[in-house]
Amino acid sequence: MNIRQFVPVFVLLLGCGGSASDVDVTVPDPPVEQECDYLEIEPNNQFDEANFVDLLPVLDPYIICGDFLFVDEGTKDIDFYHFFLNPDLGQDVVYMNFMITTSPDVFPSIRLAQTVYDEEGFETGDYTTLGVFVGDKGFLVVLDFPVPYDFLNNNDLFIQFEGVGAQPYQPYPYEIEYWNF
After folding, report:
1. What is the DSSP string of the chain?
2. Fold assignment, 34-180
3. What is the pLDDT of residue 76?
4. What percent of the chain has pLDDT over 90?
């Protein structure tokens, strides 16, 4: 073999070569933006207008996005969300986890409730309060809260969100992240 046959291949390889430091590629970090799995739909200011969201339990965290308008202590924008309970066979409790974030100027609160049924299995129009939780500076966390389950009498969950803001007539966005284990 003649070395002259390899010269063009050698020149080609030398021309294509180079160090990796000659190329400056900057890959931007992806934005750290939460996507909403469910958006609030108005009106949802009372139990019979509650937005149906999901069947529980869910293993992955899901996010509800909404906003409320703080007017004054006498006029409140309260948002209601409704869930049906569907745990595995034999379970009589669903453990709920919530994380609520909003403006640091807001004191967020949630009330958890269930529908009350009469002896014949019909809704009475009343609701049993399971728990009330209040956060501070736009943040509230509730972990492993036990929600009773019974196929006939305790088969749903309502979340009532309310906040107290610093500025009257100011809309405040919020996120309610929920999950079960």
Report:
1. --GGGTHHHHHHHHHH---GGG----PPPPP--PPPSEE--S---SGGGPEEEEEE--SS-EEEEEEEEE--SSSB--EEEEEEE---TT--EEEEEEEEEE-TT-EEEEEEEEEEE-TTS-EEEEEEEEEEEE-BTTEEEEEEEEEE-BTTTB-EEEEEEEEE-SSTTEEEEEEEEEEE-
2. Jelly Rolls (2.60.120)
3. 79
4. 68
How far, in Å, CA of 175 to CA of 49, rounded? 19
The whole-angstrom separation of Cα 153 and Cα 117 is 6
Q: Is the pLDDT of residue 23 over 80?
A: no
Query: How large is the average pLDDT for residues 30-57?
Result: 87
Question: 11: which residues sit within 8 A by CB, 6+ positions away?
Answer: none
Q: Provide the residue ranges of all domains of the chain, joining segments of one domain with +.
A: 34-180
Length of the chain: 181
Task: Give the mean model confidence (pLDDT) for residues 58-66.
Answer: 95
Mean pLDDT to the nearest integer, 11-27: 51
The mean predicted confidence, pLDDT, of the chain is: 86
Structure tokens at 124: 């009475």
d(CA 24, CA 113): 57
Confidence (pTM): 0.79
